[in-house]
Amino acid sequence: MQMQEQTTDPTRFKGALAVVKLSGKALADEERLVALFKSLKDAPVVFVHGGGVEVDELFLKLHLEVKKQDGLRVSPKEQIPYISAALCGMCNKRLQSLALSAGHKALGLLCSDGGSLMVSQLDPKLGQVGAVECGQGAFLNTLLQEGFTPLLATLCFDPQGIMYNVNADDAALGVARTLGAPLYYISDVPGVLNAQGELIPTLDEHSAHALIADGTIAGGMVVKVKSALQAASLLKRRVCIASYKEQDLGAKILKQSPVGTVF
């Protein structure tokens, strides 16, 4: 059952409320991440992160099978402790360390903590991979109002205490819907590029699907674009795909200025 979305009162904060999804490639550039954290100090921002690269590296060291289906990691029950170790341990705590060094009151959490997201099994064939729905915004709102910066790993518990691995884009969208906040997908790409390699500043559903059909948008960018289109439709707010290398990225997020490709 989908719960009522709750919106944080923006007058309580310096800057505008935002949800920022950090890709695995963004996590690798600690210098720029610290700069981003510093630029968003004292701002009401919730960070959501995955960590597929770190999970793959851990699996390789432990000689565990990496299996994916339709872009989702197949997550059998026996692999969940290792996925959790990579996402909650290595990725989340490294991010928390960087955010603390930049002056944030940073808290490393799961996306489901405080009922922020609800989760159920997506498909038994995928194992413990979760489908998420909006939860209650009270917990995250309270943290933000007290000046904390939530850093959310994309794992969720269901009401029975079963842990699920959740696609990071889906989790970020769920958090943005719960808070009624704009969403920024931050990766290593400046946005969506045209056939000449130039940034496309804005995209709607019609033009995006046309570019997918003619092959201009291809590979991993197809997944990003479809996620952004869905997010814009559900949020009824601006959604951006941008790079962590973007000049003055933090300031643009604070002002909710256009950045990268806007949907």
Could you characterize what this model shows?
It is globular, with a radius of gyration of 17 Å. It is α/β, with parallel strands linked by helices and 263 residues long. It has helices spanning 24-27, 30-39, 52-62, 80-101, 138-145, 168-179, 205-213, 220-235, 249-255, and strands spanning 18-22, 45-49, 68-69, 72-73, 105-110, 117-121, 130-134, 148-153, 155-157, 163-165, 183-187, 239-243, 261-262. The two termini are 28 Å apart. The strands form four sheets. It has a seven-stranded mixed beta sheet with strand order 5-8-2-1-11-12-13, with helices on both faces. It has a two-stranded antiparallel sheet with strand order 3-4. The longest helix is centred in the middle third of the chain and has 22 residues, at 80-101. Strand 9 (155-157) and strand 10 (163-165) form a beta hairpin. The protein is built from nine helices and 13 strands. It has a single domain, classed as Carbamate kinase (3-Layer(aba) Sandwich), CATH 3.40.1160.10.
